[in-house]
């Protein structure tokens, strides 16, 4: 929740962000764990000496315009704000990309909230590029646009 609250500040309504609680995510996290089928579907975590400081969910693409056999997806990617700019995100993304390659995906995609400059810069530094696809969603009671980014593993 702290990643959402800090990362989406100014992008999503503040009352929505302030009202987030980890218990709201428990059913989704349980489902993701139950559906794990490594190496092509699962969760990677980043830990410091005491705690989980980041995680990413990997799966075959869920987009209709891509082949789920060939294209993987980073379904979520979050690092605690206290771990930002300490290399945690870079290490976690590197591990995610290696895992997707090991699962024989030739490329992968991820979706990022339009206007999330910090995340976009990070993804671009890691070799991801926008592929032109956009989707509209409702988050926190407001309409948002998400941009799809793609990384080739050739």
UniProtKB/TrEMBL annotation:
Cite the InterPro entries for this sequence.
Answer: Acyl_CoA_acyltransferase, Bact_Acetyltransf, GNAT_dom
Is Acyltransferase one of the keywords UniProt gives this record?
Answer: yes
Instruction: Give the source's domain of life in one word.
Output: Bacteria
Extract the CDD domains matched here: NAT_SF
Domain N-acetyltransferase: residue ranges: 1-151
Q: Which Pfam families match?
A: Acetyltransf_1
Q: Which UniProt keywords apply?
A: Acyltransferase, Transferase
Enumerate the Gene3D superfamilies for this protein. Answer: 3.40.630.30
**Keyword ATP-binding assigned:** no
Query: Could you state a single Gene Ontology molecular function term?
Result: acyltransferase activity, transferring groups other than amino-acyl groups
PANTHER family from the entry?
A: AMINOALKYLPHOSPHONATE N-ACETYLTRANSFERASE-RELATED (PTHR43877:SF2), AMINOALKYLPHOSPHONATE N-ACETYLTRANSFERASE-RELATED-RELATED (PTHR43877)
Q: What is this protein called?
A: Acetyltransferase (GNAT) family protein
């Amino acid at each position: 929740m702290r990643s959402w609250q800090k990362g989406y500040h100014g992008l999503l309504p503040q009352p929505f962000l302030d009202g987030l609680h980890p218990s709201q995510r428990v059913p989704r996290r349980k489902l993701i764990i139950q559906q794990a089928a490594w190496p092509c579907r699962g969760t990677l975590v980043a830990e410091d000496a005491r705690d989980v400081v980041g995680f990413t969910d990997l799966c075959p693409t869920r987009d209709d315009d891509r082949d789920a056999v060939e294209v993987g997806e980073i379904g979520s990617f979050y690092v605690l704000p206290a771990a930002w700019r300490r290399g945690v995100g870079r290490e976690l993304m590197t591990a995610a990309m290696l895992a997707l390659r090991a699962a024989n995906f030739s490329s992968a995609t991820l979706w990022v909230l339009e206007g999330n400059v910090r995340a976009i810069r990070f993804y671009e530094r890691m070799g991801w590029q926008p592929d032109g696809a956009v989707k509209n969603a409702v988050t926190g009671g407001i309409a948002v646009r998400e941009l799809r980014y793609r990384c080739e593993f050739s």
